[in-house]
Amino acid sequence: LEHMEEYSSIHPACHGIQETPNPLQSRFLFHKGGLGLNSIMQKNFPNADLAYLSACQTSAGQENLPDEAVHLAAGMLAAGYRHVVSTMWEIGDKSAPQVASDFYQYLWSRRPEGSGSHFDGTLSAYALHHATQQLRHRLG
């Protein structure tokens, strides 16, 4: 959590657990334990810009709530991240790093001059489109 307060972008590459009955109990699972959505939403992230959630089904909806957005990605938006990239389905262990690499290469190559290591999260939709097109091309 302390790093999330400091940096504008995060990229958790882990497992995600959706708790349907109590969405605030949804969490990311890391080697050293979990990070719950309830803990994330209690913090203030003044620099929050981009959250790239490299975990399966982080924006999967619920069948019994078709008009509701209750999932980890929505929680990150509620926590203050302006741009959130997530998955609705499972993504293969081989494809996920390729998509992430293409995504960040797109953002990195289009960052404003003089921005140093900071990139612009407003281009994340374009970057994701580019990355998925690259994946489709590779898969044939």
3D structure, described in words:
It is a single chain. This protein has 140 residues and is an alpha/beta fold. The chain folds into 2 domains: 1-90, no CATH class; 91-140, no CATH class. Helices cover 34% and strands 14% of the residues. It has 5 helices and 6 strands, in the order αββββαβαβαα. The protein has a 3-stranded parallel β-sheet, sandwiched between helices. Helix 3 links the parallel strand 5 (50-52) and strand 6 (83-85). Helix 4 crosses helix 5 (124-139). The N and C termini lie far apart (40 Å).
Topology:
Layout: H1 2-6, E1 9-10, E2 15-17, E3 27-30, E4 33-36, H2 37-41, E5 50-52, H3 72-78, E6 83-85, H4 95-109, H5 124-139
Parallel strand pairs: 1-5, 5-6
Antiparallel strand pairs: 2-3, 3-4
Pfam families: CHAT
Domain CHAT: 5-136
Protein name: CHAT domain-containing protein
Descriptors for this entry?
single chain; 140 residues; alpha/beta; 2 domains; three-stranded parallel sheet; three-stranded antiparallel sheet; 34% helix; CHAT_dom; CHAT domain-containing protein
